[in-house]
NUDIX domain protein (Aspergillus sclerotialis), 634 residues
Amino acid sequence: MYLPLGFPYYEDGPAYNEILKNYHALKAHGINATLGYIPSSLVQSISWPEEYWIIDSPREIVFTTPPGTAISTRTKIIEDAIYSIAEAGNRDILKGWRNERFPVYGPGGEIVLEIERSASATFGIVTSGVQLLCYVEDEQGHIRLWIARRSEKKQTYPGMLDCTAAGALGVGESPRSAMILEATEEASLDSGIIDTDMRSVGSISYFHMKSPFPIIGNDSASAPLLLPEAQYLYELKLDQDIVPRPNDSEVEDFRLWNVDQVLEALSRGLFKPNSAVVVIEFFIRHGIIKPETEPNYREIIMRLHRRLPFPTAVRLG
Amino acid sequence: MYLPLGFPYYEDGPAYNEILKNYHALKAHGINATLGYIPSSLVQSISWPEEYWIIDSPREIVFTTPPGTAISTRTKIIEDAIYSIAEAGNRDILKGWRNERFPVYGPGGEIVLEIERSASATFGIVTSGVQLLCYVEDEQGHIRLWIARRSEKKQTYPGMLDCTAAGALGVGESPRSAMILEATEEASLDSGIIDTDMRSVGSISYFHMKSPFPIIGNDSASAPLLLPEAQYLYELKLDQDIVPRPNDSEVEDFRLWNVDQVLEALSRGLFKPNSAVVVIEFFIRHGIIKPETEPNYREIIMRLHRRLPFPTAVRLG
């Protein structure tokens, strides 16, 4: 299986520095952590009010508000910066605006600020989500997966293949509650069945890199957006007579795919990228991808559980 | 759940350097990789023949044999060094000698040398193993695990709790074949049942730190040995009427433990350390350890899949 090289590890030295020189680290006075990474071209595309921000060398953009500042104050300051970046030519941020906020955590697990979901990628903020794969298993143990096809009308990855249900984790949501809600809303599954049979099976974490919005008046190649993500994973073995059905406008249809069909679709790049990795993890956990047949077995597993260099909700001492 | 801090990550900067200053990196001329880490006190306890070794600053001990050197030649050179270290007061290396060799890989996946199993920890060489957990599941979905108690006569971790079967992966062995062999030899399981029902479920990787052998004539506190390990994981759901039985002298007995009993034993430190992490991973995969009840959920998962800074059998790009 081919995996692109992606975002280098810190210990890779030269490769890491080669990438990071194109970004500003987002920090806040008195908070000992990097909160995100913004492409330097975006930092330079607007002016940052001096009462709230300082642009530090080397390549840091820092909230000057003191540590005790209210969450809502920082949230407002960063929202103003988002509007400025949008007005500087990145209209897509506003187009995708969902009025759904992600928490940004400090090193003690405290919320430092909240950021609009559609802008989290611009600031390279780590985001969390939930992913469910439903499957059926026949008497011979052969697995088939309920694969969703995204609506052609979706703003992101229209028409691409997806897990059975998925969603983002907002401020204060429990992964399990969020997953149950998504599975009932997106796949019309009975909440009783989900509650009884849905199993928590782990989490994955990785750096996704994505092409940035074009910047008007700036034709030079811009650095990709950095999207560090964590996904809480769930699986649900369904009886053969239970059929997920689209409910809201998110999903075009659900189809029951056998393993070879899913592997073929993966290799053709038909899955939304952060759903593809969930399917790969499922295949590893179910013994379909094996060390004897996948030369990059361990490397894939290590990269799917990357330690992200940002605080998350809770950390060990 | 409490997890000790353990070996710091490279990006931790000061903490990483504070630990690493007590070790020499093992390298070889013309091979662009660190092969292991040796406590500097052990390096200084013997003299290293100048025709084969050079002690470089900062803190590197380097094979001077050229890149094309035969595996058997390097294997012999390092064996001589092992004997010297043993004679300098670390007799335990010889006491544990098993005539079982581990491969040491270069960055292209090629074997650079082989090292006696009982000496791999001394040189901080990454080792690979296989681990099997057998379990039964009742009608309500409640899981019980077949837990082994190690023989009191074992040289390492006598009397401690263990997975159902486990073993080290020698040169050229396939994880699945090695696991089947261990499960038949240690737990008397029928190879037909294993072959049909045993499932590959992933791998874990981590840095284990272990107190070193005492050095005669050197009373200063010595740095712990560094044991980077990778484990290929397997599980096997057994019918209630199948009972694993000790076969060789490795295992005292097998008992069927419920989840609460296993969690209690984990918290009391009754498991061999690198078996405890396998049980924790099983509990995460089976939804017994959950994000809602384990505050360190993601941190534990990331640390159980650490990217090790050494070449392994095959690597990406």
Notes: Chain B touches chain A at residues 3, 5, 9-11, 174-176, 199-203, 205, 230, 232, 284-287, 290-292, 295-299, 301-309, 312-317 (CB under 8 Å). Confidence is low (pLDDT under 50) at residues 215-220 of chain B. The first strand of chain B starts at residue 23 and ends at 28.
